[in-house]
Design brief:
Gyrase A, domain 2; 4 strands
Length: 99
C-alpha cells in the first residue's frame, strides 16, 4: 500500500468514498478527521480501545481524543507529513468498528 502523500485532487476523490469524514489542515499538514457519538464515556472509551488495537495491528496510529459520549479520530501519515491512501483505508476500517 502506498504511503506517499496524496495530491489535493486525490484527497478530494478519496474523501468521496467515506461517510462523515472531513479533511482539515493543521500546521500545513492535511489530516482526515471524524467524531463518533456514544451514550456515555464507557462506550467512547471502549471504541477508543478498539481503534487502538486496530492501529497496533496495522502499525499505523491515529490521534484519538476521547471525551464523555464522543471520540474523535484523526489520521495522517506522519512520515509523509500528509495524507496517504493508507489513511483512507484506516478510516474505512474505523467506520467498520463503529457499526
Amino acid at each position: 500500500m502506498s504511503r506517499r502523500s496524496l495530491k489535493i485532487e486525490e484527497i478530494a476523490a478519496a474523501l468521496q468514498s467515506l461517510d462523515g469524514w472531513e479533511v482539515i489542515e493543521v500546521d500545513g499538514v492535511f489530516r482526515l478527521r471524524k467524531s463518533y457519538a456514544f451514550k456515555n464515556f464507557a462506550e467512547a472509551l471502549a471504541f477508543t480501545n478498539q481503534v487502538g488495537a486496530l492501529a497496533d495491528a496495522e502499525d499505523h496510529h491515529p490521534e484519538i481524543l476521547t471525551e464523555w459520549g464522543k471520540a474523535t479520530v484523526t489520521w495522517w501519515t506522519h512520515t509523509r507529513k500528509g495524507l496517504s491512501s493508507n489513511d483512507f483505508e484506516m478510516a474505512k476500517k474505523v467506520d467498520g468498528i463503529s457499526n
